[in-house]
């Protein structure tokens, strides 16, 4: 079927108020209602409420497809998210002429919808749900390139027998070339009625950063779901614009400010650094730090500040170069120390080690040479790619999008050869080449475990034969005790990785899959979207270097909770064993010997609180990602930022939850839990009951009569959706739950307080 059939008569327009009653009639067509979850006839009142919401909702788009001037289909996009995900659907109207080819209309609607989704809404992922018995629509989706996804994370699909299908921006590119005719591709489409404001990242520096910013957004999107717009103020004007009241940057501050002045930018251009010039350099640098401090007090957004590393050629003695005793090197060291102290003292401020990029690509490659003379470019051409990786990693870490577990292949990944053919002692592993490159890689992987990454295995092998290498081979660096979970069988790796994710209670986006086989990597990419799948270099010897700079392995700061993560997962497994042997839930909980501390956030727990807000997706009631400035504001306005620490007889001792509670913000006698975030490792232990009981006590002490708790449903936060209903909160409009404090929640007797803070 051609997608351009009668296309010259098709137009797409935004639905307007005059369409309201027609759309109600079309929604009530028997064949349309039969395809919906709720099949009752839609009353005028219900439709009017839906219409008002749909027209004003910035996450929804509603269109009419006309053939000539006759409306033939209604097309809708909904639940559009900032990370580029949306759902869509369509239905035909009752105005289609008898004998008209409805299949042709269907196919044109779908083709036009795909173009709009990926070219106008700039989505990364488009989803739809269809009743399992609606075979014609399912076939149409498949013909246009949609692929079926597991319903596991979609309770609605399981409850109502729906098939979930998706298309990604990546697959749209091939579908567009393969299926769509020139007429479809040339068809004019309306502008987005609610254009999404992409977060802005501004590069502020004295050099010309335009070329480096040009592909930055695309580079970030290639590694994670973050979408942003990189901007560069006019040459050399960035800091001045920020400090000038009424300027665009001052009135509309970017979401991220990257201060990227180089050491050279504090020196006179093109001249050798004399002692007098070095004094002037430090003076100008001090003013630069004062500006950053001032802006932090007046502007929102996250600050990212480059460290300093000189790349301009300078004549120094061998002694000065080796001992860093030369005046210029010593001055830059002092400046970097001041920079680190300043960034540590400022809220929402990250120091970015650009010096690492310079070391990575080499001093000579970083030197812009003639490119500085021609266009004031800050660094050489090789700098851009490595810098994009570094900045992307910092942004991923800030948003909790980095990997928390490695899923490792075995054959030709952890060792050379195929163990099923070569045997335990025939695989390549040891101190001589080529086995030593795999030994080196295992050392690297083990070091990642020490940084908090959980190690798991996924291999197509016979399990006993594969595990024998971990037990018996003398040159194995990794041992079975290093591995939290494994799947060694002949099933598709995507299915095995999904099982591993469920077993260790992490989402696919927290897993990095490492496999030498490009076919296996692609199978996982296609069938388990979200898993981080690096395209590994062909040379195994390059793997440690490649992964060391991979954005998904970046960490802002290593906390004790990170280093002990594998141990904490093992404690969780022990607790599950106790639960299985206990006669009842109460007995199980008392056997854990749990103690709890619910305390105001302190300097010692601030980093962990920020990490929980950034990384927790499943038990996260509103998914608000707070900045340090926002938390400070809550506390300044008499709200509470509370961290929750638990201990148990198995050795647990960690902060596992954080809450934001306000008092009197919505009504004088009302407290509100703005967000409740908790590690899923402690689900099932009644921690939320103890926390809510404590919040009731605090709210009453503030003179409140009612406690509110909002829930904002997301694709991933199913574990917390019923937390308030389970504790007898009453549902209110707009996803808010309320509980009267004249009957507060009882504190569970299987907990003891560590302290009352």
Kindly summarize this structure in a few lines.
With 757 residues, this protein is of the alpha/beta class. 40% of the residues lie in helices and 19% in strands. The strands form four sheets. An eight-stranded mixed beta sheet has the order 22-23-21-20-19-18-17-24, with helices on both faces. A seven-stranded mixed beta sheet has the order 1-2-3-4-5-7-6, sandwiched between helices. The chain has a five-stranded parallel beta sheet with strand order 9-8-10-11-12.
Number of helices: 31
CATH architecture of the largest domain: 3-Layer(aba) Sandwich
Q: Tell me the count of domains.
A: 4
DSSP strand count = 24
CATH class of the largest domain: Alpha Beta
What does this protein look like?
The protein starts with 9 loop residues before the first strand and ends with a strand. The chain is α/β, with parallel strands linked by helices and 757 residues long. It has 31 helices and 24 strands. Helices cover 40% and strands 19% of the residues. The protein has four domains: 7-186, Aminopeptidase; 200-398, SGNH hydrolase (Rossmann fold); 405-555, 3-Layer(aba) Sandwich (Rossmann fold); 582-756, 3-Layer(aba) Sandwich (Aminopeptidase). The longest helix has 24 residues, at 275-298. A hairpin with a 6-residue loop joins strand 19 and strand 20. This is N-acetyltransferase domain-containing protein. Pfam families: Acetyltransf_3. It comes from Roseovarius halotolerans.
């Amino acid at each position: 079927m051609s997608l351009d059939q009668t296309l010259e008569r098709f137009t797409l327009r935004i639905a307007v108020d005059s369409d309201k009653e027609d759309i109600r009639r079309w929604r009530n067509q028997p064949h349309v209602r039969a395809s919906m979850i709720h099949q009752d006839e839609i009353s005028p009142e219900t439709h009017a409420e839906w219409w008002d919401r749909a027209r004003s909702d910035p996450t929804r788009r509603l269109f009419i497809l006309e053939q000539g001037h006759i409306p033939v289909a209604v097309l809708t996009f909904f639940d559009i998210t900032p990370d580029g995900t949306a759902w869509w659907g369509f239905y035909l109207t009752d105005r289609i002429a008898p004998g008209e080819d409805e299949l042709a209309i269907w196919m044109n609607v779908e083709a036009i919808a795909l173009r709009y989704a990926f070219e106008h809404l700039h989505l990364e992922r488009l989803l739809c749900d269809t009743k399992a018995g609606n075979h014609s629509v399912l076939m149409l989706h498949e013909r246009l390139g949609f692929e079926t996804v597991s319903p596991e994370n979609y309770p609605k699909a399981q409850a109502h027998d729906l098939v979930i299908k998706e298309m990604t921006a990546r697959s749209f590119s091939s579908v567009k070339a393969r299926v769509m005719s020139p007429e479809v591709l040339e068809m004019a489409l309306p502008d987005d009625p609610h254009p999404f404001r992409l977060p802005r990242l501004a590069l502020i520096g004295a050099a010309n950063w335009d070329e480096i910013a040009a592909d930055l957004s695309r580079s970030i999107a290639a590694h994670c779901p973050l979408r942003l717009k990189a901007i560069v103020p006019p040459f050399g004007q960035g800091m001045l614009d920020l400090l000038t009241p009424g300027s665009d940057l001052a009135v509309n501050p970017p979401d991220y400010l990257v201060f990227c002045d180089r050491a050279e930018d504090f020196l006179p251009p093109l001249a050798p650094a004399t002692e007098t010039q070095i004094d002037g350099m430090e003076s100008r640098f001090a003013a630069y730090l004062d500006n950053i401090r001032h802006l932090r007090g007046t502007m929102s957004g996250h600050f990212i500040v480059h460290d300093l590393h000189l790349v301009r050629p300078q004549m120094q003695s061998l002694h000065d170069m080796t001992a860093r005793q030369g005046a210029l090197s010593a001055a830059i060291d002092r400046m970097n120390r001041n920079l680190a102290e300043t960034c540590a003292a400022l809220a929402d401020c990250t120091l970015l080690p650009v010096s690492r990029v310079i070391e990575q690509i080499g001093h000579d490659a970083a030197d812009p040479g003639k490119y500085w003379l021609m266009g004031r470019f800050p660094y050489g051409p090789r700098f851009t790619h490595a810098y994009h990786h570094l900045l992307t990693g910092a942004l991923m870490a800030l948003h909790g999008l980095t990997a928390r577990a490695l899923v490792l292949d075995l054959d030709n990944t952890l060792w050379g050869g195929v163990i099923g053919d070569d045997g335990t002692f025939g695989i390549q592993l040891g101190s001589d080449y080529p086995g030593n490159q795999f030994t080196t890689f295992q050392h690297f992987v083990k070091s990642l475990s020490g940084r908090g990454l959980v190690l798991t295995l996924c291999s197509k092998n016979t399990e006993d034969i594969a595990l024998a290498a971990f037990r018996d081979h003398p040159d194995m660096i990794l041992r079975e005790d290093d591995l939290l979970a494994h799947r060694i069988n002949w099933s598709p790796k995507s299915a095995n990785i999904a099982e591993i994710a469920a077993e260790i209670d992490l989402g696919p986006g927290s897993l990095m899959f490492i496999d030498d086989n490009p076919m296996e990597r692609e199978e996982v990419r296609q069938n388990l979207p979200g898993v981080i799948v690096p395209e590994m270099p062909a040379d195994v010897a390059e793997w440690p270097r490649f992964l060391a700079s991979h954005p998904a392995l970046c960490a802002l700061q290593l906390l004790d909770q990170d280093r002990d993560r594998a141990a904490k997962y093992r404690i969780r497994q022990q607790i599950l064993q106790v639960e299985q042997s206990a006669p009842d839930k109460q007995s199980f909980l008392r056997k854990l010997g749990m103690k709890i501390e619910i305390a105001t956030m302190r300097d010692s727990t601030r980093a962990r609180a920020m990490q929980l807000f950034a990384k927790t997706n499943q038990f996260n009631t509103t998914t608000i990602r707070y900045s340090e400035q926002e938390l400070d504001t809550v506390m300044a306005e008499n709200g509470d930022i509370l961290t929750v620490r638990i201990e148990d007889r198995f050795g647990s001792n960690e902060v596992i939850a954080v809450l934001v509670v306000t008092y009197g913000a919505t009504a004088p006698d009302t407290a509100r839990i703005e967000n409740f975030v908790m590690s899923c490792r402690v689900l099932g232990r009644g921690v939320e009951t103890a926390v809510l009981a404590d919040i009731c006590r605090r709210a009453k002490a503030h003179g409140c009569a009612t406690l509110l708790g909002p829930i904002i449903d997301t694709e991933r936060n199913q574990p917390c959706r019923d937390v308030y209903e389970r504790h007898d909160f009453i549902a209110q409009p707009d996803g808010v739950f309320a509980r009267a404090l004249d009957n507060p929640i009882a504190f569970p007797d299987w907990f003891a307080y560590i302290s009352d803070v």
